[in-house]
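Notebook entry, structure prediction.
Reason for the run: the old model in the group folder had no record of what sequence produced it. Starting over properly, with the input documented here first.
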Amino acid sequence: MSTKDDFDKLINNSQWVEAVDSLIDGIKVNCKPNNMREHKFMSQLRQLLNRIEIWNEVGPACTESEHEMYKDDRRTVNKIMEACSDVNYVIPKFQLKEFNRMWKRYAM
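New structure, fully documented this time:
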């Protein structure tokens, strides 16, 4: 028997394939970034940033001042997201209120 035949048998062996598949699935589950702790506002900040980006792409024609406001708001959200990489970071209350205003401002 040649090594090619041995290899073909090994590949066609369903037990071996199932074992490898379950091993790979186990690795995927254990490597999920969701298993890591995340700041409680991080998902909302991501949604806000996404909303701001969508507004920029498909939003109404804007004035120069609105465009500057968009860039400042995007920069602010990015800074807070960086600060939230520390799970224990406390976002100031005035900043949370400002994020709420941004959410309403960039509604489509």
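Summary: The chain has a mean pLDDT of 80.
The old model has been moved to the deprecated folder.
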